Amino acid sequence: MNQTLSAFGDIEARYTLLKSVAGNAAKLGMDYYTRRENLTVIHKENDLQDVVSVADKAVEDYIRCELSKAFPSDGFLGEEGGALDLEARYLWVIDPIDGTSCFVNGLHSWCVSIGLMVDGLPVLGAIADPNHGELFHACRGAGAFVNDTVIRVHAAQHVREGLTGVGTTYRRGKESFLPFLQGLLDEGGMFIRNGSAALMISYVAAGRLIGYYETNLKSWDCLAGLVVLQEAGGIASDFLRNNGLLDGNSLLVACPGVYEQLSDLVGPSLDTDC
Ligand code: IPD
Ligand code: CA
Ligand code: CA
């Protein structure tokens, strides 16, 4: 373990457990996914686009149970289970199924995403995609991987050299979305949306996408991905600004060669709370 990492206490044991829990949680999610015709889908707060099923809750329960058995003093922030001891030194940030709309509609781009903050800093991340047999993972200062293979961001210097992931909702922050798309296309770029923020950030880390912009995310959508991205050499806007951990924010991530160009296309909203 390097010196910087030792400042984070018992991080190696947490990293090892994280990878196995994320993988097993993804298997559990897959059990539900293969039986999804029988799942009751609920619309959160009467929002027809915001869906959840019993699978999301069951997967998060499993993750919290396994992590707290090993580390009973750690805190939790999860999309379905809410907050528990936010002041804890070690805070797990969990999205049991990121890409639930895809999940309930039989589309394969969903995953389990688990990040760990230590003293307020994102330190561990794991994103498990059971449909493609991929586990993206990273520990601050120790590199980024998909399964056992090291990953690195794209070498692009201009947006026309690759694909840029995008995402938005009809609810918040969307005002900058169409101008961004227009600017991207004007520059000869191209966009793609797969319905899972955690996977798109991982794809930027793995050099499959050159960047990704979403107008409003929650911390459980992106915290794990941000660790993977940083360790793969990517750049991210300051997601945690203005209480982003609890309130969310817009997010831009990219390989270094196109970050400035994409940031100019997004405009000033990246520096403000949305
Ligand atoms: C959603 C996905 C989607 C993004 C939404 C998120 P969920 O998470 O990450 O890609 O556009 O903003 O809410 O609801 O599937 O966990
Ligand atoms: Ca999510
Ligand atoms: Ca979710």
Automatic annotation (TrEMBL):
E.C. number(s) listed in UniProt: 3.1.3.25
Cofactor: Mg(2+)
Keywords for this protein: Hydrolase, Magnesium, Metal-binding, Transcription, Transcription antitermination, Transcription regulation
Residues where Mg(2+) binds: E79, D95, I97, D98, D221
Record InterPro entries: IMPase (IPR033942), Inositol_monoP_metal-BS (IPR020583), Inositol_monophosphatase-like (IPR000760)
Catalytic class of the enzyme: hydrolase
Biological process, per Gene Ontology: inositol metabolic process; signal transduction; transcription antitermination
Keyword presence, Repressor: no
Protein family per UniProt: Belongs to the inositol monophosphatase superfamily.
Name of protein: Inositol-1-monophosphatase
